[in-house]
Amino acid sequence: MAENNSTVDFPGKPGIATAIPKRRYRLGEFTLVVLGDIESRDGVDYQYIMAVIRGQDPEPGIYITAERGDGAVPREFSMRFIMHDGSEVIGSSTLWYDLDAFVDEATGIVSRVLNLADETSYRLL
Q1: Residue 81 falls within a domain, yes or no?
Q2: What is the number of domains present in the chain?
Q3: Contact (CB, 8 A) for 20 and 10
């Protein structure tokens, strides 16, 4: 995944210094790339990031993140939905520690937001 050099054109975009691609899916015309083992430059402790890429566009247009909480609830993660026009925390759960649980939830959100209910995601990596 390309390094994030600028957030000027995309406020709230995760500041990824390094990350390892864990999974890749196809959902309609979109590619969903799930990153783990993330070192961030923005002070956020990410468990996972799903980057949503349309067609051949080199840059993601949507990110969904699982962010570690403040430690008040062990292993609780907030899920954040990030687009060009802003971001919003859409829930929290201890289940998003697990990669499969995060992918299932995030893929469902992408499917609903992009109106892809008739599409089935399939794993590429």
Answers
A1: yes
A2: 1
A3: no
Q: pTM for the full model?
A: 0.90
- On whether the CB atoms of residues 25 and 32 are closer than 8 A, the answer is yes
Percent of the chain scoring above 70 in pLDDT: 91
Rounded distance, CA 30 to CA 55, Å? Answer: 6
* 4 located within any domain: no
Model pLDDT for residues 59-70, shown as the tens digit of each residue:
999 999 999 987
**pLDDT digit string, tens, across residues 88-108:** 999 999 999 999 999 999 999
- In a domain? residue 1: no
Q: Is 63 exposed, middle or buried (0-12, 13-18, 19+ CB in 10 A)?
A: buried
Strand order in the sheet with 86-93: 86-93, 77-83, 62-68, 46-54, 30-40, 16-27, 122-123
Contact 35, 21 (CB under 8 A): yes
Would residue 6 count as lying in a domain? Answer: no
Domain containing 70: what range? 17-123
